[in-house]
Fold this protein.
Amino acid sequence: MHSRQTGVSALGSLWLQSLRLLLVLSLCQFINSYTEKERARDLMYRYPLIDGHNDLALQLRILHSNRLSQIDLHNVSKVATDISRLKAGHVQTQMFAVYVMCGAQQKDAVRLTLEQIDVVRRMCTEYQDFELVTSTQELKNSEMRQKIACLISIEGGHAIDSSIPTLRMFYLLGVRSMSLTHTCNTPWAESSSTLYNVFQRQNSSLTHFGKAVVEEMNRLGMIVDLSHTSWDTALTVMNHSKAPVIFSHSSSYSVCNHSRNVPDWLLRELKKNGGLIMVNLHSQFITCRNQANISHVADHFDHIKQVIGAESVGIGGDYDGAIGFPEGLEDVSKFPALIQELLKRNWTDDELADVLRRNFLRVFEEVERVRDQLLFNHPSEVQIPLEEVQNSCRLDLRNPYPRGILPDKSSSSTAELKSLSLLIQASIFLTFFF
Ligand SMILES: *[C@@H]1O[C@H](CO)[C@@H](O)[C@H](O)[C@H]1NC(C)=O
Ligand SMILES: *[C@@H]1O[C@H](CO)[C@@H](O)[C@H](O)[C@H]1NC(C)=O
Ligand SMILES: *[C@@H]1O[C@H](CO)[C@@H](O)[C@H](O)[C@H]1NC(C)=O
Ligand SMILES: *[C@@H]1O[C@H](CO)[C@@H](O)[C@H](O)[C@H]1NC(C)=O
Ligand SMILES: *[C@@H]1O[C@H](CO)[C@@H](O)[C@H](O)[C@H]1NC(C)=O
Ligand SMILES: [Zn+2]
């Protein structure tokens, strides 16, 4: 009985000891995770995020017809982005995509793009929390003023309707980046997608005109974005561009073999170019499935870092541009959880400061430096050959009565012409005054 009692009490003390050990262990784990969480917040406080891609403007069009007066951008339902959540996520600069569907190519893509630029400009000027910026200097100033800086980026080169003057006017409206394609080829650059059966792939995935677009973007100081282009187009652009380029929202093809992602050989070319890949968080590009979690996302970061180093990696969430984000990364307030996971995987503070903002700033500054070097270059006058555009909506600007072709055999036709011109003048007069 005595011995049995001893046995029981020994068992009890063993049990107590293991309980104590368990408590200590879980306390350690608690402190550790608490520390990582705090470390992530602290790091993001010092190096707030520059995110490469956000499609809130598209949702504003779809859900609210761009009527900003109907909503309060501090708190917007049915979307993943609003001011409260951007602040909670330590997002300091947001590249807002102005995107119009490929169906608008050869139709009203330019008007729709203008309307999307308008809604981003309104959003970023009517709310005190936002500030529209167009340079690295303005971006840094807005950080000091504790504003969320908005950068405007065109998504899909069809927005310029194969016109370099149109590209220049978009620059004047504040656009500082353009992805050369979306899911459709343009007459001058090739998409990674075969969704649209337009402008079939030709010998060259970046035409003579496409190269002129890249050169003009270099001259203006507009960042060339290769997310959505084909690998061949991306390679040709990297070879041709005088400034570094970005993939604003693409992930690693080695980790998930989606055509929107970037293979290792192309990552190495990107490294030579001095550019940046901003990892897309959409589940389909992370696991090639609808389910994903933060570990899967971190695998992309680890892989890209291993191939080209942390100095070539950034974050391009793609929130509101796709449906389905990983568990724990559902909206723009969740970025700190990703940084926490990367800390857990032994990414250093220095590497993460690069990922969060310094890499992007370096690339944008280099784009500005190239622009300054090209200061004395003239605006491009390259025009796309009409047969490459194949657009029946384009007005063929020719004199309807060119000299020499004019039926000049009789004076009566000249008289007819004179009366026609009088008629036109009269109708212009009438239009203006009545
Ligand atoms: C946003 O609005 C919803 C109701 O519309 C409310 O439940 C929620 O608490 C609000 N969130 C913030 C951060 O204000
Ligand atoms: C493609 O290449 C062939 C011969 O190499 C040439 O004749 C043709 O004009 C090219 N087409 C285009 C669209 O460049
Ligand atoms: C890159 O450009 C060089 C010349 O600048 C050229 O010789 C080479 O073929 C190009 N490579 C690609 C893949 O375009
Ligand atoms: C992508 O990977 C999956 C398996 O991971 C494979 O079944 C599929 O064939 C691959 N697709 C391509 C285009 O390589
Ligand atoms: C993510 O899912 C994988 C299984 O696919 C699992 O091994 C891993 O622990 C999960 N990570 C998190 C953070 O939940
Ligand atoms: Zn996209």
User: Anything to note?
Assistant: The longest strand covers residues 91-99. The mean pLDDT is 90. The pocket of 2-acetamido-2-deoxy-beta-D-glucopyranose (ligand 2) is lined by residues 202-204 (CB under 6 Å). Strands lie at 49-54, 91-99, 130-132, 148-155, 175-179, 223-225, 246-247, 276-279, 313-315.
